[in-house]
Design a protein that fits this description.
Blueprint lengths: L2 H4 L3 H4 L5 E6 L7 H10 L2 E4 L5 H4 E2 H7 L6 E2 L2 H12 L3 E9 L17 H6 L9 H22 L4 E8 L17 H5 L4 H13 L5 E6 L8 H13 L5 E4 L2 E3 L5 H13 L3 E10 L5 H23 L4 E6 L9 H5 L16 H11 L1
Parallel strand pairs: 1-2, 1-11, 2-5, 5-6, 6-7, 7-8, 8-10, 9-10, 10-11
Antiparallel strand pairs: 3-4
Helix pairs in contact: 8-10, 12-13, 13-15
Bound molecules: alpha-D-galactopyranose.
């Protein structure tokens, strides 16, 4: 056996249970140390941003083409990541086809007119929008083009699609919990835009690919029942395969018990589960702070293995970033954060040892 094959590896340790993933960016795959670490420890990747509509859509080319439904695409970053995954035998969970965030407002307007998203939020989602019918046609065209491009150019690489992200938000939602601050909600309405996205995804997916609904805080008491209702609605048409539990956690919230309770409720519907965006905001970089982080990760992975042993199909857990240097959390939380398993200079942390130890128990 070569030394590389004998080296400890997260994904090999978790092979009996589920895939281990990381959210990455295409340009970083040119860095040999970063690339080596990904290939050694992960058998799944997700694009942190590069597979989102704002990164895939090309407004200039759309305007030039002069059609009212068909958008133009720039697949260069998507292709770079998919080629990296294919060449290194790594699976991809594609994030994301339909989301209120990181989708340009021009996707929804008459004549592809551009409006800053913040302006929409300020004026209560008023703009020169195209008709509901046109927007639904654009949605189907977008999903068709993205899925067929990916599956034709990189057959067998994507194993799961996030079809819709974050459509439920009871704090800014309607009676059924659907998020109202969304151009999808304002123009098509919910659950209609969600059903339409899943119907299109089901039509264009390749055999064996799973379709996911993905959301954050999906263990919260005010959010969980609404998500369960939506999943049941999708299941009634056989449109959804799994629930994506984002999992951006804090050190003291939510409890692992509440994550487990929610996961069991999703599992009881007969759905597969994926932890899709795992990080634990930890502002304390001291040895004691990082030991506490390691213990929290251990309890979380213990819980995932318990679910798996109880027959719930947890099939991947994806960290949101590779090293502490890549994490979005310092920017988002406006605080220091040391949330992941690798340091900024790509050394393993106590949290890494703890997650490995859980698999090896
Ligand atoms: C949400 C989205 C992700 C990402 C994170 C923040 O969870 O689903 O794509 O944008 O926010 O990094």
């Amino acid at each position: 056996m070569s030394d590389a094959c004998k080296a400890p590896s997260l994904f090999k340790a978790y092979e009996p249970y589920f895939r281990i993933g990381a959210a990455i960016n295409s340009w970083k795959t040119d860095d040999p140390a970063y690339k080596a670490l990904i290939c050694r420890h992960f058998n799944s990747i997700t694009a942190e941003n590069e597979m989102k509509p704002e990164s895939v859509l090309d407004r200039e080319a759309t305007l030039k083409a002069g059609d009212s439904v068909r958008t133009a695409f720039d697949f260069s970053r998507v292709d770079k990541l998919l080629a990296f995954a294919r060449d290194n035998g790594i699976g991809v969970r594609f994030h994301v086809l339909c989301w209120h965030g990181q989708t340009p407002v021009w996707f929804f307007t008459e004549g592809w007119e551009d409006v800053p998203f913040e302006e929409l939020v300020k004026n209560g989602f008023k703009a020169n929008f195209a008709s509901r019918e046109t927007i639904l046609q654009r949605q189907e065209y977008y999903i068709r083009e993205v899925m067929t491009h990916v599956n034709n150019a990189f057959p067998g690489v994507v194993y799961a699609w996030d079809v819709v992200n974050e459509a439920i938000d009871p704090d800014q939602g309607n009676a059924k919990g659907y998020r109202e601050k969304s151009a999808w909600f304002a123009n098509v309405g919910a659950p209609d835009f969600i059903l339409a996205a899943f119907r299109a995804a089901k039509k264009y997916k390749a055999p064996g690919q799973q379709l996911y609904y993905n959301d954050y805080n999906c263990y919260e008491d005010n959010k969980l029942p609404h998500i369960l209702d939506l999943l049941k609605l999708l299941q009634a048409e056989d449109l959804v395969d799994g629930m994506g539990m984002q999992g951006h956690l804090l050190m003291d919230w939510p409890s692992v018990e509440s994550c487990e309770k929610a996961a069991r409720a999703y599992g009881a519907l007969g759905l597969s589960l994926q932890v899709t965006e795992l990080d634990i905001h930890c502002p304390d970089g001291s040895a004691a702070g990082q030991k506490a982080l390691a213990e929290r990760y251990a309890a979380y992975f213990d819980m995932l293995i318990r679910l798996k042993k109880d027959g719930i199909d947890v099939n991947s857990a994806t960290f949101w970033g590779l090293s502490d240097r890549d994490s979005w959390l310092p920017g988002f939380r406006k605080s220091e954060s040391y949330p992941l398993l690798f340091t900024g200079d790509l050394q393993t942390k106590p949290a890494y040892d703890a997650v490995m130890a859980v698999a090896e128990k």
